Amino acid sequence: MSTDDTTTNDASTETESKCGASTSESEASTESKCGGTTTETAETTSDSKCGGSSSSSSSNGCGGSSGDDEEEVGATVDDFDADPGQLVAVGLGPGQPEGMTDRAKTALAEAEHIVGYTTYVDLLPDEITEAAEDIYDTPMCGEVSRTEEAIDRALAGNDVAIIGSGDPNVYALAGLALEIVESKGATASMLDFDVVPGVPAAQSCAARVGAPLVNDTVSISLSDHLTDMPTIESRLHAVAKEGFTISIYNPWSRKRRENFEKCCEILLEHRDPETPVGVVHAAGREDEEVEIVDLEDLPELGETDLIDMTTTILVGNEDTYVWDDRMVTPRGYETKYDY
Ligand SMILES: C[S@@+](CC[C@H](N)C(=O)[O-])C[C@H]1O[C@@H](n2cnc3c(N)ncnc32)[C@H](O)[C@@H]1O
């Protein structure tokens, strides 16, 4: 799925990356192709360990009509002379600093370079951004270019953290990072590649509506950027039919209106219209909004501000009920114990 799905795609400004593979031995920069901005927060860049010799870190800009599909990996491991630094994928959790794990904060404090989508960089505590030597952020696009930028910086000798919301293993960049490292002829071990987990949106959102996900649960993303819609529909049918609770990621965008409508249709085909559904927008952030509704009322919420690309939808199973404004999904204890 798209890790950074979007309804807007502002990549008009190309700025220079300070540490992709470069065309000379100097600290010369190559142009980032992803509209990223690089922010030097340390005193000097003269000791920045760039040093690859390829011509570019990525072949495609973002924001063009070609999209990410044409992004290609540029520099290979042989283009870098330096001893590699470390690459760590860090999950930030829902967004606010207090939702980050101590381990994530430590990993970011230790990173020389931080790479991420601008919205996530903006969520970082000041002490982390101020301490970083360099921050490279891009608007909501070009996740391949951005991930490659992080890898090239690590291959050039810098300790790099690539950040994302929630957990790096949930519709996020951890897998893409490993795939690109492999395609460059490098290895994960060479970069001491590590993943620092974060609280995934499904869990942050579940916490806001009580206990909706305590039994078998499946996550589905409605983004058809990387998985086609017929496949998503067929998975939704299977999951809804089998009675799992469901956490729905990437539920809505202007481009994805029909996907949301189709999803509601499929859910209503298999589930009672009164099935409780938790709708959580921007959990843990300033614009957080939470509602519990009946499944039959979900479709009309698609046109409201409650459901957008920062919303996760939690659909109860046949046993889920609402009590005291909380969703409760029994775990099954009631079948074994008296209470
Ligand atoms: C690209 S996925 C990233 C998921 C992330 N890696 C995780 O573990 O939660 C983006 C989707 O996560 C969900 N999401 C991320 N942050 C959220 C938040 N603070 N509140 C509600 N949903 C959120 C939304 O469904 C959004 O469309």
From TrEMBL:
The keyword GTP-binding does not apply. Residues 67-82 have a biased composition (Acidic residues). One of its GO terms (molecular function) is methyltransferase activity. Residues 1-14, 21-60 have a biased composition (Low complexity). Pathway: Cofactor biosynthesis; adenosylcobalamin biosynthesis. Residues 87-298 form the Tetrapyrrole methylase domain. SUPFAM superfamilies: Tetrapyrrole methylase. Coiled coil: none annotated. This is Precorrin-3 methyltransferase.
